[in-house]
Amino acid sequence: MPEDTFLSLQPALLGFFINAPRYAYDLSREFEHDLGRVWRLGRSLMYAQLKELAEQGYLAMDVVTQPNRPARKIYYLTDAGRIRFAQWLNQPTMHIRNIRVEFLVRLYFFRTLNLPGLQELVTKQKAVLGEMEDALEKNAGDIQDDYWRLVVDFRLGQIRAVQQWLELCLQTV
Predict the structure, then answer these.
(1) Quick check: pTM over 0.90?
(2) Burial bucket for residue 122 (CB in 10 Å: 0-12, 13-18, 19+)
(3) Model pLDDT for residues 80-108, shown as the tens digit of each residue
(4) Residue 27: which of 6, 9, 4 has the closest Cα?
């Protein structure tokens, strides 16, 4: 399943339900605590995303009534949600600009949930980056404009830095 150009919050949210159901408010606090330095997420956006995930069949929801308080919604991961999360988790990030968020969130789940497969994901990610690097280098020789040369050099530098970081990532985790 190809990854969209834009960051997709929904499959990442599913990972928080792997081990236990969650109330939206508790999920919001956990997300902010664990991933807030990587991915900023407003509470209203999270609630909207949870509603969509439930409508798509990736989450199930129960309403829990409380005396003298508004009812709360508790969300559970469905089998379809578990499959969607695994698909997202094990695919490389296809755009260099998204690595600083999506790949780091994938790494978070591999570590937090103690999941196998990080080595395979890093191998796939390095292959995607290698293809990007090859494509840029192939076209770099035809660039006459100094500005576009700098843009290509910048992108090549980013790709190479991420490739080095991925090696460090494997040694550290």
Answers:
(1) no
(2) buried
(3) 999 999 999 999 999 998 999 999 999 99
(4) 9
